[in-house]
Every structure is written in C-alpha cells, then in structure tokens.
Amino acid sequence: MIWLGDKRGLLSDWVTQQWVRITGRRISLDAHPWLDGPTGNTRQIGKDFFTDYARSNNLETVKSGVRGLVEDLSSLSGSSADFSAVAKPVKDFYERTSEYTLDAWSEWHGLFRPFGRALAVIFSRRLQQLNIPLSPLDSCEGMSSSVVQLQDPQSGCVIHTAWVRELTATNNVLYAGSYSICSVPGHPSPCIRVVFPLPNGRAIVLMRPEIHNDSSFSVTSAGNAFGDPGFYFVVQGEGGVAWARYVRSMKETIHVYPAESGVVRADHILWLWGKEFLRLHYRMQLRHTDQAEPESKYLISSTSFPISL
C-alpha cells in the first residue's frame, strides 16, 4: 500500500476522500452541525480512539455508573410519536447500555461476500473500524461492549457517548462510534446520529425512529436527498469547512424488541443499491442476570438465530 504522508495517509484513503470532495458538496459545519463530529487520524481508529480524543480535546471520560447510548429515549419524540409506548426492556437498553452484554451473528448474502472481504483487507482491519464479521465464526466467542461518555469538565454536559464493540475471537473493532440525538433538515422529528471516525473525516449514519404497534422499536437510515436521514461521508477541511457526500444507495434498519427475561434482541439489515447484502442479529443481555424460560411473544426461533447465542 502506498503511503502519502501523515496528512493524506494511504493512497486508498486519499482516493476515497477525493471522491467525496468531487461528488459531494462543500459545506459550513456551522450551518450543518448535524454533519460535525470527531475526525480520525490517517493511521488507525481502534478501541482507544475516544479516550485519546477526550485527552486531546480537554474532555473527561466517564467509564463508571450507568451509561446509555441516549440519556432519555423520549428525546426522540416528534409531533405524533409517543415514546412512552416503547417496550420498557427496549427503553432500558438504550438508556442503560453499559449494563448489557452483547452477542452477534452475521449473515452475508453470497454475492456480496467478496465485497465484504475486500473492504476488510483495504480498510477495516488496518483502521480497526467497521470490522463487520465475515462469518459466524468471527463472532462465535462473543464481543466486548464498552460505553464511554465524554463530558465537558466545566459544565458536566455529555459531549459524546462512545460505544466501542470488539470481537473476542479476532480482537477486531466491530464499531467505534459516537451516539447522540440531533435534528436534520429533511425529517420533522429528531433522529439518532452515529458518527464513525475515519481518516481525515467520518461516516455519519442518521436514523429516523419508529414505534411499532407491538411496542418494539426501529431506526432506519434511508432517504432521497441531502438533508434526509441516511448515510453520509464527510471529509474535514479547515476553518469549519467540510465536504459531505450523501450515499443514497446505502440503507439500513435496526429492529429492537424484548425477548427472554432480561434479554433484548435486534435485527440489523443493510441494503446496497436496493439489494439486501447483510443481516446482523444481536442479543443484548443484562449483566449478572440468569436467563429465564422464554416468555415473550418476540422470541426468535432457532432457525433464524443460533442457539449458541
């Protein structure tokens, strides 16, 4: 691989950034704060990124006590949604994420598996970011789940909530992302925002929430134009300037629902160019909780979720 120096990084990363600059739009982050967020260096992201980021930006890290991806799920409430209707186990998971262990299982669609392997070789394993399991064996030994809050030492306000997940079998970082709630121009109510630091920029996933009649909960990143919920690549410039590319062809949905006692499950489906290419199944279990007999109408059969989880 060709190294272009600490400022530009590897040729493959630099080419991707130029694609964003050429095909995206030049923006002011003051006018588009929903596209702002932590920027990665050109060498590696990894599990310690947010600890290092806090140190560099004079923020305090909070790694004790109960920490959730969001402080209050009802902050997503819009003009018509009533988030008090969300099942309590689901709400607890989002607001008390640090209290849960996490298991995962992946299903790649055959035609896209070579794409996943190429992504891993060129980007993910080197950067230790977005290491999506290529086979069930990658996640068979489970994964670590660490929630770290970065807060302003003066006000005590949480600036970022980092969720870092690392595969035990491979020691690869599955995701290292910052979670928050924000408003976007193309949607009437708040969305969940996940920021994944990348070299000289970031990937941002903006997901609109939905409450189902059975009290389960979904978030979906999909839209039609810049400003809608969906997937964005952002390249950081200087002086509050950036270049942003809305990737309309990339869509995903995560359906979260209660299952066995003390367990919440999620089905994560991703599409590219209208074709489903990956399913991820998660089991989130309260720490130090013995799993009781199944008692929920949301249970998955063993044919759709491995018994080993």
Please tag this protein with its features.
single chain; 309 residues; mainly beta; 14-stranded antiparallel β-sheet; 14% helix
Your description of this structure?
Strand 6 and strand 7 form a beta hairpin. The chain has 309 residues and is mostly beta strands. It has one domain. The radius of gyration is 19 Å and the shape is globular. The protein is built from 4 helices and 14 strands. Mean pLDDT is 89; it is low at 289-309.
- Overall 3D geometry? globular
Measured as a percent range, the helix fraction is: 10-25%
Order of helices and strands: HEHEHEHEEEEEEEEEEE
Number of strands: 14
What is the count of helical runs?
4
- Average the pLDDT over all residues and give the rounded result: 89
Q: Helices and strands: which structural class?
A: mainly beta
How would a textbook summarize the main sheet? 14 strands, antiparallel
Radius of gyration: 19 Å
Residue runs with pLDDT of under 50 for 5 or more positions: 289-309
Q: What percentage of amino acids are in beta strands?
A: 35-45%
How many structurally independent domains?
Answer: 1
Cα(first) to Cα(last) distance is: 38 Å
Concise synopsis of the structure shown:
The protein is mainly beta. The chain contains 4 helices and 14 strands. The chain has helices at 11-23, 49-56, 88-95, 113-127; strands spanning 25-28, 60-62, 100-108, 143-151, 158-167, 173-182, 191-198, 201-211, 217-221, 230-236, 241-247, 250-258, 263-272, 275-286.
